[in-house]
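User: Hey, my collaborator sent me this sequence without any context and asked if I could get a structure. I don't really work with proteins. Can you help?
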Amino acid sequence: MSIVNEISEALLVGNAAKVKELTEKALGEGVSPKDIIQQGLIPGMGVVGVKFKNNEYYVPEVLIAARAMHAGLNIVKPMLADSGMEPVGRIAIGTVKGDLHDIGKNLVAMMLEGAGFDVNDLGIDVTADKFVEVVKDGSVDVIAMSALLTTTMPSMADTIKALEAAGLRDKVKIMIGGAPVTQNYADEIGADGYSADAASAVDTAKELMGV
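Assistant: No problem. I've predicted the 3D structure and written it out in structure-token form, which is a compact way to encode the shape of the chain:
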């Protein structure tokens, strides 16, 4: 088995120490940071996503696998600027204003990062103005909004209206999700995409990026 496959296997079982050790070993053997990510970490998290969709993995397993992924990513990420590897896309993610839930958002952020996206996690209780700000500075391709309460869902619509008012709506793709959120609601408020869970969010983001 090649060392990048070993990295994938270690990630799958959530062995962060092993992923770190194998990543350092791979670099020592001359494997490029790009190959470690594209042939080791991303495929590993891809399998995690499939298992999560099929109810073979649950939230704890995904979090443990994501921690293992970060053990490798933290080593190779600083080297990426030199290797010229571009992210699949740049995403700003946040739980909307009035909502303090973050487990779902964190899962989505980890899965997106595991799929090769550059993720800017804005945290919880994110105002429409904050989302507008990140679009204005041109550093994102996609905004991902999460809500776990029906009472905070209108904040998603408010953010889209704020982007329209600022003349920035066509500069960014918008995807939404969270327990009470539906495809119908996404259509109603003019979002570009909706996903029911963290694994599907990766597919939605890729569709929006055309990759």
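In plain terms: DSSP finds nine helices and five strands in the chain. You can pass these tokens on to your collaborator as they are.
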